[in-house]
Amino acid sequence: MCDQTFMAATFGPCDSCGKTGPLMNIYIKNEPVNYCSFCVEVMAYRGLQKGETLETLRQESDTLKKKLEEERGKLNDVELHQVAEKIEVVGALSIKTRRVLKGHGNKVLCMDWCKDKRRLVSSSQDGKVIVWDGFTLNKENGVSLPCTWVMACAYAPSGCAVALGDGLDNKCSVIPLSLDKNENLATKKKSVAMHTNYVSGCTFTSSDMQILTSSGDGSCALWDVESGQLLQSFHGHTADVLSLDLSPSETGNTFVSGGCDKKSCVWDMRSGQNIQTFENHESDINCVKYYPSGDAFASASDDATCRLYDLRADREVAIYQKDSIIFGASSVDFSLSGRLLFAGYNDYSINVWDVLKVTRVSILFGHENRISRVCVSPDGTALCSASWDHTLRIWA
Amino acid sequence: MLKEMSGKMCSSSNSVVQAQKLVDQLRVEANMERIKISLTAADLVKYCQDHRRSDPLLTGIAASSNPYKDKKSCVLL
Question: DSSP per residue over A210-245, as a string?
Fold first, then answer.
């Protein structure tokens, strides 16, 4: 749980009061200064416009929130499933377990596909990271990082490296993959990101050169892999950020994040600005994923629902729920066309939802413990699920 | 007043910085241009329909072209 967090790049004596501590880098009349958070607060208080008090600011934020509700309500002229009434129903799916990947010694926390559509990387609570060939079940590479929980892993777009998010070390590191199975990859691990709490999610951006991370410290950050430099930080969440996803749209420079504050936020990567916020879930948001066109995104939450948000209408447009589903949803992913939404739950099952008609199409059983992650392969031929039962399954 | 603030720094309800940030954020969000759902939902449906044939999990593809499905094995007599 984070309180007043900020990315403290400097530590030292405050320019105003002289006390030593973590400093905020701010600008006063275009001059950069380093103030401790208390002095920033005092300055903000003095900087209030005439007649403004904390009370008036609170009132203004309440009126703005009401206005936002009204504006969003005006657009709700029809429901998504009504627009989708005319299209044909999804036929019976013949999705079954085709591969079971065994090899991890503890809960598998995360997995990611490689762009070559056959390799995947998975990470687990015992610090093991394995790169598999999905077709042959061959374990191509393995790294052991004994003193850590690898909570997040991501494949680089080139397929030549993987990024790992640390639950205990609070770092995100990049490991270059080698063709030599015997090479000890742990020694080549390069730390890139540093947070002040666990790293919950990580992803490369369009190239191997930048990584985006989300953390339990309530922030997200963009890093340069080569230098380890922080390029942009994103603040706005008031609790742990559990998941993030990059926009698939080519012109989009945005990403969405979701966390324990029940909010999901859309961010502009260049400016660090929070563009849109959605507060509909009743509990922690465990996973967020963009719709393939980039115009919408889905979120999975501990409140046992998954929801679809339309970015251009700026509101929630569908809730995927059933009275019989009472366990939290941990992960979601869309099929290639966006028609199907695969959601992994804490009751060990994966529900397949018809995104447009807002109905459940199928349930995939097989895992013997909670699902931690579901991910559709880049060409859409298969779904991979990672579970606390120490295995991964490939469904097709 | 100042002493009070230092103790309650971390609570968002009393912090001026937090309140100012919230108001600024809400102002940005309130000014966003929004489109009616009848239009945006139609676009979502259109995207699905346009891409449904190239969605293997939706339509199912033959075992011969799906590397994960078991192919009928040949038996050498």
Answer: EEEEEETTSEEEEEETTT--EEEEEE--SS-EEEEE
Q: How far is CA A378 from CA A73, A118, A156, in A?
A: 36, 9, 13
Long-range contacts of B6-13 (CB under 8 A, 24+ apart): B6/A38, B6/A41, B9/A4, B9/A37, B9/A38, B9/A41, B10/A3, B10/A4, B11/A3, B12/A238
| Residue in B closest to A85 by C-alpha | B45
Nearest Cα of chain B lies from the Cα of A43 at a distance, in angstroms, of 9
**Tens digits of per-residue pLDDT, A22-59?**
887 776 666 777 888 888 777 777 776 666 777 888 88
The reply to whether residue B5 touches residue A42, judged by beta carbons under 8 angstroms, is yes
Is this complex's ipTM strictly greater than 0.95? no
Cβ neighbours for A38, distance < 8 A, ≥ 6 positions apart? A17, B5, B6, B9
B40 to A312: CB separation less than 8 angstroms, yes or no: yes
Task: Among A71, A87, A340, select the one facing B58 at the smallest CB separation.
Answer: A340
**Please, what sign has the CA dihedral across residues A372, A312, A378, A148?**
negative
